[in-house]
Design goal:
497 residues; 45% helix
């Protein structure tokens, strides 16, 4: 069932449950992206697992998030079980054998994988605004901060760099207003509060150096297999906005850094975006438009993006229309929205005259899916009811010892596990503040000395006044004081009227 240039997904069945034919995903169309959907417990994770296995064996690196911990099983050989053997026998998978795959574990918190970081500068204001859920005005202030950092040569690497720059902007707001526009201290305060929230959610560990080099996600082994990068996301899912922001940043980084390759025979990398709805939930229109643009154009960089989610309605239509390869597991229709999702999923397939896709979706078994992939000239295949093949790697997670052993022999072991804190905006601004404070102290000291000298000079050169001179001066001071009080009262009075 394993064929050059294609990934075996499973075997389709006829309406009478007899075996039809093998269903494959063509490698040369894998950069046309894909969608894996289905309700909880219907087999989405196994579909992701066998796709990752197929790409790896074809020499294509893979990146995927491990939301429940199960995907880590790719790092170990599968264990013989009756239901796996039965499925292989049922679908005619005669060359089924167990295999482990070359995995690299990553973790934003550095606990279950190598530390995955980026810098504030690399993330940029648009994605950072999404992470902090900023208003349009606050986003404008953040853009201003990045502009000032660029103009003044300030490196924004971690949260303390950005926090220091914002505080500096508040102190210099009168100076900055003319050149950059109005600096709102209220907006700066709001951004500072959001930075504190990110810090409390553990996001501080995500920003800093060494930053993740995307080339480390595109490794292949000596025997020609693609490395499978797995992001530990079980803890990260407690901060869903941070999770979505990291994957969005990674996608944009791939888009910006990789060269154009057109339509290669196989992708340079396949990117699985699990829990994809988190990317689009309450996302502003401008961000969705950017995601749509990246999905459209990144295929020419040789990157295939597969969105994994429960409901096809989770994906905006503009993005959904770009996803050519579909694996649809069972959906339930207990509510009007669920019924709409079933109909939407069925309508996206090229119809099969042998069955009603809308009816079949509601009755698919575990490990069964409707499958349609791109065939010759990129035309979608007729949808087929398919029994998904059993995985060659382990079903279920690795234990802690197995994970640590694999991290110890990882090709990036030691490269990301130690923090680097070089001179950046925080240190530069702190040095400027200390220098300014020192100069101010010296100025005050100098002025105080000069004042004392002048006072001493006046005191030594003063002549004794006559009684008449003193009386005249006293009268003059009294008149001047009365005029001054009248003038002040007059101004205040006129304002009151």
């Amino acid at each position: 069932m394993l064929e050059e240039g294609r990934i075996y997904l499973g075997t389709s069945r006829n309406p009478d449950d007899s075996i039809n034919k093998g269903e494959y995903l063509e490698l040369k169309y894998a950069n046309r992206h894909g969608l894996v959907t289905g309700a909880t417990g219907t087999g989405k994770t196994v579909s992701l697992q066998i796709l990752a296995e197929g790409f790896s064996n074809a020499g294509v690196p893979v990146f995927c998030a491990d939301v429940k911990g199960d995907v880590s099983g790719l790092g170990a050989k599968g264990v013989e079980k009756d239901f796996l053997a039965k499925r292989a026998d049922t679908i005619g998978f005669d060359d089924y054998e167990f295999q482990e795959f070359p995995v690299i574990f990553w973790d934003l918190f550095g606990e279950k994988g190598h530390q995955a970081r980026t810098t504030i500068s690399e993330m940029g204001p648009l994605i950072l605004s999404r992470l902090m859920d900023l208003s349009e005005t606050q986003e404008g202030i953040l853009n201003m901060a990045f502009k000032i950092a660029d103009d003044e040569g300030l490196l924004l690497l971690d949260l303390k760099d950005l926090r220091s720059l914002l505080s500096n902007m508040a102190d210099r707001r009168k100076e900055l207003n003319d050149e950059y526009g109005l600096v709102s201290t209220q907006s700066i305060g709001a951004i500072q509060r959001q930075l504190l929230v990110i810090e409390q959610q553990g996001g501080e560990a995500f920003f800093g150096e060494p930053a993740l080099d995307i080339r480390d996600l595109m490794r292949t082994t000596r025997d020609g297999r693609g490395a499978v990068s797995i992001l530990a996301a079980d803890k990260l899912m407690s901060s869903p906005r941070l999770y979505a922001t990291f994957l969005l940043w990674l996608l944009s980084e791939l888009f910006e850094e990789l060269p154009e390759v057109g339509d290669p025979d196989r992708p340079k990398l396949v990117f699985f975006f699990d829990e994809a709805h988190l990317l689009f939930d309450e996302a502003p229109k401008v961000l969705i438009e950017k995601v749509e643009q990246v999905v459209k154009l990144i295929r020419s960089k040789g990157v295939g993006v597969f969105f994994v989610t429960q409901n096809p309605l989770d994906i905006p239509d503009a993005v959904l229309s770009q996803l050519g390869n579909r694996v649809q597991h069972a959906l339930r229709a207990y509510t009007p929205r669920e019924a709409k999702a079933v109909k939407t999923a069925a309508d996206t397939f090229r119809p099969n005259p042998a069955f009603d896709a809308e009816d079949v979706i509601k009755n698919l078994g575990v490990g069964e899916a409707l499958v349609s992939t791109l065939e010759s000239k990129g035309i979608p295949s007729i949808v087929q009811r398919t029994l998904i093949r059993p995985p060659s790697s382990r079903l279920g997670p690795l234990d802690e010892r197995e994970r640590k052993d694999l991290m110890g022999v990882s090709p990036v072991a030691g490269e990301y596990d130690r923090d680097i804190d070089r001179e950046s905006a925080y240190e530069v601004l702190q040095e400027r503040a200390e220098k300014a404070a020192k100069e101010e102290a010296e100025r005050k000291k100098r002025e105080e000395y000069e004042y004392k000298q002048k006072k001493k000079t006046r005191s030594s050169g003063r002549k004794r006044q006559s009684v008449t001179e003193a009386a005249v001066k006293s009268i003059a001071r009294s008149v001047a004081s009365s005029l001054g009080r009248a003038l002040v009262r007059g101004i205040l009075g006129s304002l009151k009227r």
